[in-house]
Automatic annotation (TrEMBL):
The keyword Nucleotide-binding applies. This is GTPase Der. GO terms for biological process: ribosome biogenesis. Residues 167-187 are annotated as: Disordered. The gene is der.
Amino acid sequence: MVPVIALVGRPNVGKSTLFNRLTKTRDAIVAEYAGLTRDRQYGEASWQGRTYIAIDTGGLTGDEEGIDAKMAEQSLLAIEEADVVLFIVDSRDGLTPPDLMIAEHLRKRNKQALLIANKVDTLDPDIARAEFSPLGLGDAIPIAAAHGRGIQAMLEATLGRFPRDNAEEEAEPEVVAEGQEPKRIPGPSEKDGIKIAIIGRPNVGKSTLVNRMLGEERVIVYDQAGTTRDSIYIPFVRNDDEKYTLIDTAGVRKRGKIFEAVEKFSVVKTLQAIQDANVVIFVMDAREGVVEHDLNLLGFVLETGRALVIALNKWDGMEPSQRDYVKVELERRLLFANFADIHFISALHGTGVGHLYRSVQEAFKSAVTRWPTHRLTQILEDAVQEHQPPLVNGRRIKLRYAHLGGANPPLVVIHGNQVEAVPKSYTRYLENTYRRVLKLVGTPIRIEYKGSA
Ligand code: GDP
Ligand code: GDP
């Protein structure tokens, strides 16, 4: 499971500066969902082969009864969701009373917390360490978020103990000779069948869809213990031999547990489920059309490269004119996800739900097929013949052969000369060619270049 790191501390200590540095915040997901309101920002990042989720919070002032109550609540929820809390203090301000209160809270919650002294620009790090030792959280790790100093050591202390992504399948980086097959391609484990995450904003119908999908199927286990932030994993078999595991972020099968009331929709849960899935069924509410938060979440799905099937739910009882409007909207706003099948369904009545499986199967197959090196190289050669890469400094870029470097999403590694000069438009041309020739459906594809010595 992808670790979650929360940044907490008083306002102005530099949390956002650090967050932006960690996530490069291109697609940070701002939590503005009903009930979550402002002040929590989520971003995905990666350090030395470890993907993690960072949560930025508005800040704790110690005035939790007053106007800052809402902000405090958000910070406290982020602390609950986190595996590790980075408690940021400001070494220029020195130790303040709110810092003591925050430390006390972290101790009470028994959270793994690291003390981070920010803004140690020119300050002696030893002075920062001594200054904050009364917090009782061990030695502060000195950083200067604004200048990028100390970040590596901080990440080592934070993430070093977590396994790398695909750790069990990882090997020495292997050199693949021309024309040879790579021995091992990291990919999803298939013992539990296809892992499907049901993702979407609150109230789009995820719970209803999960119940509908499981309604007639043979569910093997469904009552797993879990904490607030865990999705529920439900393995089941369809048509006697199709194995799936549904990742249920809505938590329908956990009815009656008290924490359900606290927060039904959790961004962390959603992001982790996407990371852990082979295929995402992305649910939208046809009656509301495509809204900003849909695009936000969908952007994250694309970023992870997971296979994707889109379900426009609540299609029942809609006027024909309304339906036409939604279809036009989809075409206009979901262009960036146009590799995915779209289904118009009614989770409530069951209409169209069965057809989702065919798309899930196809998307999964596209995402995990092990294409042989000679096939990928042949496609490359044909593509280059059809349309040469440009000249750089009077020399033509040479792309010599290609092999598969990963699955779900498929990663095509292309070897050649001057590969750092390949223009984006040419990469897009190759992507489209691979997509067309390999008949990829429902999955993004990635291309990486390796220069030859
Ligand atoms: P937040 O409220 O905790 O999210 O704090 P911000 O990230 O908004 O930062 C508050 C202020 O501290 C901003 O003016 C930042 O530029 C500044 N700041 C952040 N990191 C550093 C640092 O390493 N050194 C210095 N001198 N200033 C910093
Ligand atoms: P979730 O928050 O995404 O899990 O959404 P729910 O499954 O709890 O559904 C939210 C509301 O939408 C409930 O009142 C459902 O009955 C309703 N709903 C779900 N699917 C459909 C559908 O296909 N058609 C209609 N008309 N209502 C639906």
